Structures are given as structure tokens and as C-alpha cells.
């Protein structure tokens, strides 16, 4: 009596397929992009993870008279929170642009998103 191989993939096959599905570019670089070999520092790694310029974020934070010092971690967290906020409001505004059969966001799309979503109520009247 001959046995047939099971249709279920072996665990190592699953590991490979998951690794192949992950987006490239999330792995930390060995040289940190500066041509020198060695592990990256925390500040370099945070800078690569943030899309906004951290130096500008720090400058804006220090513009507040209540802020005298801003740690690198706090600057990174503010930058990341800002990125997530902009992404969220842009996605919500995109829905209104698509309803108007447009691909470009307009001010009215942002206004509609701000009016429709309770989380953005604090922004009402800021674009006037």
C-alpha cells in the first residue's frame, strides 16, 4: 500500500512563504548608510524609521516656551505620531475624493473628513 504525501505544507515551507511575503527594506542595515561597517546606533535607526525630519520636529518642539529640553526618544515619538495622524486623515479624506471620482485630495475633502469623523472634531474651523 503506497502512502501519499500530505497536501499540507511542511513547517519550513510555511516559514519561507511568510518570509517572502514580508516587505523588503525593513531589515536594519549593517553599515547604517554611512559606509562604515558595524551595528547601527539607536538614533540612526530611529531616523530611518521616521519619515519626517527629526531636526525640524525638535525645532518646532523647542519653539514652545514650556519645552526646554527634548530627548531624542520624545522627538521620535512626536514625529511618528504626526506621521500616523497625517496618514489617518489623508486616508479618510481620500474616501471623499474617490466619491467625487478624483485621485487628488482637495481642501473640501479634508473639510468633509473633519466634519464627518468625531476624532477630528478638534480641527473644525482650523482650515478657515
TrEMBL record:
State where composition is biased (Low complexity). 37-46
User: Could you state one GO cellular component term attached to this entry?
Assistant: epsilon DNA polymerase complex
Q: Which GO terms describe its biological process?
A: DNA-templated DNA replication
Domain of life, per UniProt, equals Eukaryota
Output the InterPro entries linked to this UniProt entry.
Answer: CBFA_NFYB_domain (IPR003958), Histone-fold (IPR009072), Transcr_DNA_Rep_Reg (IPR050568)
According to the UniProt record, where is the region Disordered?
Answer: 1-48
Give the subcellular location. Answer: Nucleus
Q: Name one GO molecular function term.
A: protein heterodimerization activity
- Could you list this entry's UniProt keywords, alphabetically sorted: DNA-binding, Nucleus
* One Pfam family per UniProt: CBFD_NFYB_HMF
Transcription factor CBF/NF-Y/archaeal histone domain sequence ranges: 50-114
Composition skew (Basic and acidic residues), residue ranges: 13-27
Quaternary structure?
A: Component of the DNA polymerase epsilon complex consisting of four subunits: the catalytic subunit POLE and the accessory subunits POLE2, POLE3 and POLE4. Interaction with POLE3 is a prerequisite for further binding with POLE and POLE2.
- Report the function annotation for this chain: Accessory component of the DNA polymerase epsilon complex. Participates in DNA repair and in chromosomal DNA replication.
- Spell out the protein name for this chain: DNA polymerase epsilon subunit 4
Lineage of producing organism: Eukaryota, Metazoa, Chordata, Craniata, Vertebrata
Amino acid at each position: 500500500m503506497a502512502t501519499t504525501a500530505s497536501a499540507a505544507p511542511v513547517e519550513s515551507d510555511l516559514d519561507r512563504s511568510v518570509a517572502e511575503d514580508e516587505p523588503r527594506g525593513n531589515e536594519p542595515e549593517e553599515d547604517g548608510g554611512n559606509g562604515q561597517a558595524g551595528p547601527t546606533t539607536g538614533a540612526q535607526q530611529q531616523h530611518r524609521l521616521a519619515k519626517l525630519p527629526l531636526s525640524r520636529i525638535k525645532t518646532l518642539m523647542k519653539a514652545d516656551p514650556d519645552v526646554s529640553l527634548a530627548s531624542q526618544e520624545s522627538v521620535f515619538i512626536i514625529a511618528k505620531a504626526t506621521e500616523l495622524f497625517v496618514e489617518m486623515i489623508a486616508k479618510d479624506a481620500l474616501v471623499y475624493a474617490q466619491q467625487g471620482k478624483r485621485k487628488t485630495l482637495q481642501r473640501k475633502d479634508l473639510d468633509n473628513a473633519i466634519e464627518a469623523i468625531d476624532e477630528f472634531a478638534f480641527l473644525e474651523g482650523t482650515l478657515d
